[in-house]
Amino acid sequence: MASIRKRVRKDGTAAWNVLWRDADTGKQASRTLATEADAKMLTDFLNSNGQSFAEAAKTAGRMRSQDPTVDAAI
């Protein structure tokens, strides 16, 4: 399960680390994001896609795609 950790930088600004054990490699992985909302979104994607960053990225890409769906093309 992915988790979020707030980190305060030397200049006083906050960064958000998302930590998880990647299903593809079995190793602990992390990403640092600028906002808590982005960290929460990544955590949700990871938890919904079996902790696989590759699968989470594919899902996010499909959601952002501007290509028409099959229903819209018919």
Describe the structure.
- There is one protein chain.
- Helix content is about 40%, strand content about 25%.
- The chain has three helices and three strands.
- With about 70 residues, it is an alpha+beta fold.
- The termini are far apart.
- It is flat and about 55 Å long.
- Helix 1 crosses helix 2.
- The protein has a three-stranded antiparallel beta sheet, covered by helices on one side.
Topology:
Layout lengths: L2 E6 L5 E8 L6 E6 L2 H13 L4 H12 L5 H4 L1
Antiparallel strand pairs: 1-2, 2-3
What's the overall geometry? flat
CA(first)-CA(last) distance: 40 Å
Helix content, binned percent: 25-40%
Largest sheet: 3 strands, antiparallel
- Tell me what portion of residues adopts beta-strand conformation: 25-35%
- Compute the number of helices: 3
Sheet with most strands: strand arrangement: 1-2-3
Stretches where pLDDT falls below 50 for ≥5 residues? none
**Rg over CA atoms:** 15 Å
Order of helices and strands: EEEHHH
Structural classification? alpha+beta
Overall mean confidence score, pLDDT: 87
Quaternary status of these chains? single chain
Number of strands: 3
Summarize the structure.
This protein has 74 residues and is α+β, with helices and mostly antiparallel strands.
